[in-house]
Amino acid sequence: MILLSSKRSTHQLKGVAGSIGANRLYETTDELIQQLRRRGEHLVDCDVQLAETDRQLSEVLEAITQYISRIEGENKNE
């Protein structure tokens, strides 16, 4: 059950990453999905790729936050 949920969530994240042009996150999640498929129930073996996915996601979220702040600042000045 955990594996199915992990695959589904990772696949959804991959789709969003592709939609917004977050190419490194897209590639990282794609590799994680492949590892989940190959390793089956041995999720422990995916730690390195999961950590990289988390790092990439954090970078994307930070970039989005900075973009929103910049846009909000520009709107206040108008």
Concise structural overview:
The protein has helices at 2-20, 23-39, 47-76. With 78 residues, the protein is mostly helical.
Description:
- The protein is mainly α and 78 residues long.
- 85% of the residues lie in helices and 0% in strands.
- The radius of gyration is 16 Å and the shape is elongated.
End-to-end distance: 51 Å
Largest sheet: none
The strand count comes to 0
Q: Give the amount of beta strand, in percent.
A: under 5%
Q: Structural class of the helices, strands and pairings?
A: mainly alpha
| Poorly predicted segments | none
Features:
mainly alpha
What's the SSE blueprint?
Elements: H1 2-20, H2 23-39, H3 47-76
